[in-house]
Write a structure and sequence with these properties.
19 residues; mainly alpha; globular
Length: 19
């Protein structure tokens, strides 16, 4: 999930879970 925080633009379900 940390990688998703670095990649601000959502590009997967993980990004949704992070926020």
């Amino acid at each position: 999930m940390l990688l998703n925080l670095i990649s601000f633009p959502p590009s997967g379900l993980d990004s949704t879970v992070t926020f």
